[in-house]
Design goal:
This is BTB domain-containing protein. Pfam families: BACK, BTB. It comes from Tabanus bromius (Band-eyed brown horse fly). Residues 30-97 form the BTB domain. This protein starts with 6 loop residues before the first helix and ends with a helix. Strands 2-1-3 form a 3-stranded mixed beta sheet. The longest helix is centred in the N-terminal third of the chain and has 20 residues, at 7-26. Helix content is 67%, strand content 6%. Helix 5 runs antiparallel to helix 6 (113-126), helix 7 (132-141) runs antiparallel to helix 8 and helix 12 (189-202) packs antiparallel against helix 14 (211-224). A hairpin with a 2-residue loop joins strand 1 and strand 2 (39-43). It has helices spanning 7-26, 45-51, 53-66, 78-90, 100-110, 113-126, 132-141, 145-157, 159-162, 166-169, 173-180, 189-202, 204-207, 211-224, and strands at residues 32-36, 39-43, 70-73. The protein is mainly α. It has 14 helices and 3 strands.
Length: 225
């Protein structure tokens, strides 16, 4: 066991979480109100500052100078904010297939790195042929290369089916170049050629200039195998 915490430490931390969560639920000593889509959340400034770089900067700039204790957040939904606050107060992130993208976005926006790691673990455990393109894109957007690696492996393992989907056709050139210069799990050169040509034909006027380089990249990869 390489954990830096003893059993006593863990009991202490769990008790702290329980007490802080109970204080939030009873609104005891709450000193900040977050307003999200008409829903008000009474919370503790110190809890938000401890978990989020975004809130630390927000309170430094406004709370300390203006004694402001009410903040309207326009970039999220109340349900998603509730999940984020539950994580801050309990350490448990209730992420699922339906809220994953929005939760990941808010974790990144609020600078809650530990929650981003939980999202990454969820994505890796749940990547499939149905969602691998979306997960690949999200991993790229939010700087999570491990997600991208798992998603690319799934894409290439199911390339024939996935390459006919709208999500795949709409991938920009930089994603296609990244995927096809490292065709993980697919050694079928003819299939790769067909997929490249179909992707180019989807928007021929804009993409025909990429065709030669993509076909050359496929050829180079197979020469090196």
């Amino acid at each position: 066991d390489t954990s830096p915490f003893t059993d006593t430490d863990m009991v202490f931390l769990e008790n702290c979480f329980e007490k802080i969560k109970a204080m939030k639920e009873s609104q005891e000593q709450c000193d900040v109100t977050l307003v999200v889509g008409g829903t008000e959340f009474r919370v503790h400034r110190v809890a938000l500052v401890g978990a989020s770089e975004y809130f630390r900067k927000l309170f430094d700039e406004k709370y300390a100078k203006e004694l402001q204790d009410r903040f309207v957040l326009n970039d999220c939904e109340a349900d998603t904010m509730s999940v984020i606050l539950d994580f801050i107060y309990s350490g448990i992130l209730n992420v699922d297939d339906f809220n994953f993208a929005e939760i990941l976005h808010l974790c990144d926006y609020f600078g809650i790195e530990l929650a981003k790691e939980v999202c990454a673990e969820y994505a890796i455990e749940n990547v499939s042929s149905d969602n691998c393109v979306e997960i690949y894109i999200l991993g790229d957007i939010y700087g999570l290369p491990e997600i991208c690696r798992y998603a690319k492996t799934t894409i290439m393992s199911n390339l024939e089916a996935i390459s006919g989907t709208e999500a795949f056709f709409e991938l920009p050139i930089r994603h296609i170049e990244d995927i096809f210069t490292k065709p993980l799990g697919c050694h079928d050169k003819e299939l790769l050629y067909r997929v490249v040509i179909r992707w180019v034909q989807y928007d021929l006027p804009c993409r025909k200039k990429f065709l030669k380089n993509l076909l050359d990249a496929v050829e180079r990869e197979h020469v090196s195998l």
